[in-house]
Amino acid sequence: MDMLLLDDLSRWLNIDDPEEQRIFANVTWSQYEALLAELDDSLAYRVNYLDGVLEIVAPSRRHETGKTRIGTLLEIYFLETDTEYFPTGSTTFRNPEQQVGAEPDESYCIGTDKEFPDLVIEVIVTSGGIARLERFRRLGVREVWFWQHQRFLIYHLREDWTPFAQTFGYEAIHHSELLPDLDLELLGECIQNPNPLAAAKAFRQRVENKRNQV
């Protein structure tokens, strides 16, 4: 693969709705790192790498709106419940020994700050899916949430991942084990509220009410 420059990206990757995705095979780790250096933390693209396969995504407005609203509501939850958290956003997480690099939509360390996040959240619009779990397994991410078709799909990494080989060592669960008191149905309901301010106020009030009932 020839080295991709920003001018090349502008030519073949249309940054418009729906979101665009391009896949390249046989990419070396050094080529991947050179591309990251060329992009220089560009917010226009998400760049992921696994075993020589490079994925570049130009997120749509719908995608970015969804991930931002999830992040806003989660931070309200952390504040209202006095939960120690460290937001790591869309940081590029890399492990050359595992031949993996990933840029999640949102990510957090819970309790203490760490090299890699405990929680990753991915908004699925037109690209991606369950295969993303392998990237996060190699980074040791404990829990992955997919927001897809207006609902959350939750996966938690298991030490013995043989029974969950089809999901790359992650077990599909109904409630977060990292944030067991979080009402995901309420979170999903507020994400779908067309008024972000009203949604944030309603979410905060419901979380506060639940905390006062304990």
Automatic annotation (TrEMBL):
Q: Which Gene3D superfamilies match?
A: tt1808, chain A (3.90.1570.10)
| Residue span, Putative restriction endonuclease domain | 29-184
Q: Which InterPro entries match?
A: Nuclease_put_TT1808, Restrct_endonuc-II-like, Uma2
Cited Pfam families: Uma2
This protein's name? Gll4219 protein
